[in-house]
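Q: Protein A?
A:
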Amino acid sequence: MRDEKRSAETVIELSKVSTRFGDHVVHSEVDLQVSRSEVFALIGGSGSGKSTLLREMILLQRPNSGTIRVLGVDLQDIGDDEALALRQRWGVMFQHGGLFSSLTVKENVGLPLREHTRLDDALIDEIAAWKLAVTGLKAEVGAQYPSELSGGMIKRASLARAMALDPELLFLDEPTAGLDPDSAGGVDQLVRKLRDLFGLTIVIVTHDLDLLWQVADRVAVLGEGKVQGIGSMSELSQMDHPAVRMFFDGPRGRAAQAQERHLADLEAGRKTVRPSSKAK
């Protein structure tokens, strides 16, 4: 019962959020709710405002009107001390990693701990090494610099840093952008692992339909300043709105759906297999 209550809890709530850049309307009275422990994704065409909405959720930008509440805190006119405390409850994985080039990977991961805790250096290094291991990176990667890493390794290192303070809430900005299919598939598995292992609430901005089919509980489609559709990928695939259909009718959308059907068929096949009876 307690878990059901937690899953029903609203972690992020947007009410009538509107954003303009000059005369250009980015959002017009957007309403959204994200529940605890769900993987929630934002998608939309270029200029639809999904990245702007993410920036508003993490206090990097403010909407022109409307309210945003994150973890029960109203972001409107939030004070510096309250904002600092709130930022320590979430982690952010930026699209291009956002790692400091002059620091080793382990130093990058340990940086939030050095800024916000009084732990000694040895313990911080130990925690950083564990966070890297959780994201699938080998121990020796911690001694390397970001310039020495592949794109997939940078994504994992950035995710390890986002997890440094044991956040309740994780924001992922284009986590598979620029990755080859194998590396992107590894990110799919990692997102599911983190959600299941730590009970995280995860918000993703992405163009990757394979990622959406694999990990998203619900997806909101932004277009023309509004939410044009919201639901599971299966539910969205049945909607007729043009802003939604563009993600399913193109070649990438058809390929992603075919892959999803293939995986579903494989899973169904495994469930129907029965052990052969032993010879008498």
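Q: Protein B?
A:
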Amino acid sequence: MDSITPDDFKVTDTIKLSKIPTQLNIDASDEEKREKLLKVQQKLSKKQDAMYAHNKYAFLICLQGMDTSGKDSLIREVFKEFNPRGVVVQSFKTPTSHELEHDFLWRHYQALPEKGKFAVFNRTHYENVLVTRVHPEYLLGENLPEITQLEDITDDFWDNRFESINHFEKHITHNGTKVLKFYLHLSKEEQRKRLLNRLETPEDNWKFSVGDLKEREHWDDYMKYYEDAINRTSKKHSPWYVIPADDKEMSRYIIAKIIWEEIQKLTDIKEPELDPTVKANIEVYKKQLQ
């Protein structure tokens, strides 16, 4: 497990999702994986405190994946050692009527992290080139000037939308936000097992949605469009990582380790120096308090 590196999962060339495994063959127990994750969590927490005080960088963590790929539990486990003031989670569902009155990236701009903080997007701006490609009729609700019927949605439309996403990510990275994008690569068989488990476990029944079954029918389309989106938008400044997701414990550890190794590259992050006057009078202040 220690030999795992970000480059093992980073997309730097054209990929075929069907050729990428959804599970790693690592000889480690779940307990060992949890112990490894805890160590990374603790290191990340300390580094995030320093990043918060440094107040120059922000991190945007983007999580995408099919239903049941483990996004919610991953967020809970990977970031639970963080100071709550240092991380904000945003979950993007169907756009509201107010959000539809703006361009498709508007609500994502509103949720970007402040300097010194992490933002985790649970589903992201990529829904606008995933769900809307599987269900192009949703675009009619955006009230776009040149889209009045499905026949108006051309390849040029998607080219422009991908261009907007690439510009969006490049712009925010130029202003100090580090963008890391993770696709949780789940097998169709593992999804079947997880959906079935939700039905068979009473305390998990609430997690089940009939909509999950309907979207499952479009599995092949989603794989095609995920692959296209990843290939078009994995850039040096905002890379995609394809994470094997059939093993939840392992996927959490991998993502935590990638975040840790990427934040380590920001060698200028350090806590600010104490004001010289305060530093010179520490003993005086201590006596006052005593």
